[in-house]
Amino acid sequence: MRSIVAILAFAAILYGSICMVQLTIPFLQFKPTVDFLNSKRLIYHLDWWRYSFYIHVFSSPLVIVTGLLQFNRFSIHRKPKFHRITGMMYIGTLVFIAAPSGFLMGLYANGSYPTQISFTLLSLLWIFTTVMAYRKVKQRKYVSHGRWMIRSYALTLSAISLRFFTFLIGYFNIPLYPAEAYIVVSYSSWMVNLLLAEWLIYLNYPERLMKK
């Protein structure tokens, strides 16, 4: 049963990852009228924000995919070199590229202060959990490393969760003004993920993953 749930979760995340990659394709036009950028016309002219946006959008799919590859028992035990390389790609891209650019974007997030606080806090927690995962693996504390990686990847998946919760609000016609809805999804997208991460940790998921 647990194996089936793990396979379904992997498939769902993989599908979400593919969708995220597809969402980035229109931004290759580098025009201010594309999708989300329509709401950013007042700040699109700011070079630092515009560069941060494109850096974040194009680096995040790499973080999602390389992060997903870390939770595979076969690569951990049979392909440790592959596990290390993709792990370093995940950590390096996240800590030095995706999260800092996300933090800068968060300073001008739609919805004013409530959402700006949410997204900047998310970026800081994203970096913190990932750095902790790196520290633990360097100390050869592999179970603790696994726990912090789960937390880190839970925050990585907030990009997918945000869109999923936005869809749910629209599908169930929840009576919220657009600004209120965006505040709700901006917090729930990463808070719910962290709660699920702690639940997995409570179930000793990292320990089971690392057992041969």
TrEMBL record:
Matching Pfam families: DUF2306 (PF10067)
Residue intervals passing through the bilayer: 7-28, 48-69, 90-109, 115-134, 154-172, 184-205
Keywords: Membrane, Transmembrane, Transmembrane helix
Domain of life: Bacteria
Stored InterPro entries: DUF2306_membrane
Name assigned to this protein: DUF2306 domain-containing protein
Organism annotation: Taishania pollutisoli
